[in-house]
């Protein structure tokens, strides 16, 4: 609905935009994640994880071509980099526009971490996206390559916090032979970690530090058109299933379409619409690559959960409606996640921006103050990106992300990383 409105709104200015760019075929266009990693001189390792509720997740690890596992595990610190809603592990690999320009690799967070020679890089995929759409008891449709078992899609970030993240943490610690990991969570990756730390305070013993990029917890002041869907949350909850077409279907139409000069303006603004407008930091010639890998498929309930946060102005568990809430929670309303339960010993670093339509300054201010005042956290670091137009999507797709986000993140990892 909003996409169609956006097309009509900007149709008159398409040709002006198109004349500003010279479009060519991007070398990463159409590559698989294995080919993408290999083209940068690294190797992709893939691990499967089965959660307690029988979902099968895919965990990616990026390593040098030739390495000794024993010394590698001993000399590098494990870092989990968790994607957001509509995201996947590839989000941290696709930003740099040229495969052979090493200076550009710092605009890809996973490669920037590797090039520091200090970190062991782990990129999980939470349930539902194309890499983790598997289950012990249900299989994908062989024709659509999508999970069509409706019950499979009955999950939100509640389930990611309760099942996915603990399983991922345990797997990474096991393989890296470590008792602690650093955790960088982007958007929903931060949401789910705050939910986990509130529910299981003991998990904090495994994490140092927790770096929250553009965290979405409170949503009272969001400016995104996403807020207009909030009145539909009950209807969408009843419908369930997956929220969007498969990423392969989106790629099929966007791959040729977004290379056309007449369509680039529409494609770029389709990205910005929900996260904040910032054409200044968008490499428009890279759009076919972005749409090849994103957006990833998500559950409708994942979207609904955020809409419920907007309506309630609370950081709460999923609202199943009155009768099911009583059965599951023992109350008509879903309980809040109690931020007071977060261990005061963990270090939390906020990296946020002023032009973020989803993770607004007033809402993140509220979260930071609650953590400092109510939860008594000794180490809450607040890093505000100084670029006034930096948006939600720029954290993973912005030109200059290496300077604005990735290098500061690595500096904080260097400062607070576990012993």
From TrEMBL:
Keywords: Glycoprotein, Hydrolase, Lipid degradation, Lipid metabolism, Signal. InterPro entries: AB_hydrolase_fold, AB_hydrolase_lipase, Lipase_euk. GO terms for biological process: lipid catabolic process. Residues 1-18 form the signal peptide. One of its GO terms (molecular function) is hydrolase activity, acting on ester bonds. It holds the Pfam family Abhydro_lipase. The active site is at 187 (nucleophile), 356 (charge relay system), 392 (charge relay system). Residues 33-95 form the Partial AB-hydrolase lipase domain. It comes from the Eukaryota. Belongs to the AB hydrolase superfamily. Lipase family. This is Lipase. It comes from Blomia tropicalis (Mite). The lineage of its organism: Eukaryota, Metazoa, Ecdysozoa, Arthropoda, Chelicerata.
